[in-house]
Amino acid sequence: MDTAAIQKLGTSVAKTMLCDLDDIFVGDRLRPLDENKVKELMDSITRVGLLHPISVRVVDQMEIDGESYNVVPILVEGLHRRAALRGLGIKTATCRVLDVDEVGAELIEIAENLHRNDLNKLQRDEQLARWIELTTERLRVSGKLPETREGRPGIPLSVKQDLGIEETDAKRAVKVAGLSDEAKEAARETGLDNNRTALLEAAAFTEPAKQVSALRERHAAKEREKSADAKVLAKESADKIAELLAIHIPPHLWDALKANLRRAKPADILNEFDRLVGVAVFDNTRFGSSEQLAP
Asked: What is the DSSP letter of 193?
């Protein structure tokens, strides 16, 4: 996240400091480390250098694993950049030091994640809902939290102002994020964690068992559709192959061909075909066009 975006969140960049990368305390992150992303960054850093510095906040004293440390840099953003630099054997880096507390640091991390494209729908909604939770509590404490006509806390304006996300989208995110742990796990197992419609359908139920059931029923329906589509494609493929064989194989060989086809497995035929023609299967100059092959 650039300096202007950080300042928009009400956070200032106090200074920069040279940090030993091993000394930066990482802690729990909202997103796990993606090794493929780290490799991409390593290539980028090798070619053009580190374009955006790592951001940290600094605490005067902190206990880590039972030991007390002074002046500890804590990672705010740049988990993958830190890993990429370490992977290149780089020991230190100049970091931005943000004047931000623990909540502010989490808000920056969430904002950075939300503007990336590699979150699935469930992950995005969980992080957006967490943003709303944190900003709502801040506004409640300051007495600036807006209310709806029903007297309930409304969606903070910062969702639109700072994140560019509409209120309707934010409300749906809160619903999805409110799914039970069992339902979220079912969504991941069935691959529906990137299907917001399915997630919202499940969120319409309050009981975890019904949420799980809704997701599994949606998954079963999708599998039935895929199976039906596969059968149609298989029939179309069989028709096409039969047509090609009838066109290109002389009639006096049909009986032998049918006998061999009944004995052979389709996968074995394909493998042998690949062995015989290889990548040149579409090379008409070598094998002749379809018109040339026609009897």
From this structure: G
Segment 165-193, tens digit of pLDDT = 888 999 999 999 999 999 999 999 999 99
* Cβ-contact 55, 98 below 8 angstroms: yes
The whole-model pTM stands at 0.64
CA dihedral sign of residues 251, 253, 259, 260: negative
Helix axes 121-142, 167-177, angle to 10 degrees: 110
Owner of token pair 């605490």: 59
- Cβ neighbors of 81 (< 8 A, separation 6 or more) are 41, 50, 52, 54
Coil/strand/helix, residue 96: strand
How far is Cα 225 from Cα 244, in angstroms, rounded to an integer? 29
- Span 230-270, pLDDT tens digits: 778 888 888 888 888 888 888 888 888 888 888 888 888 88
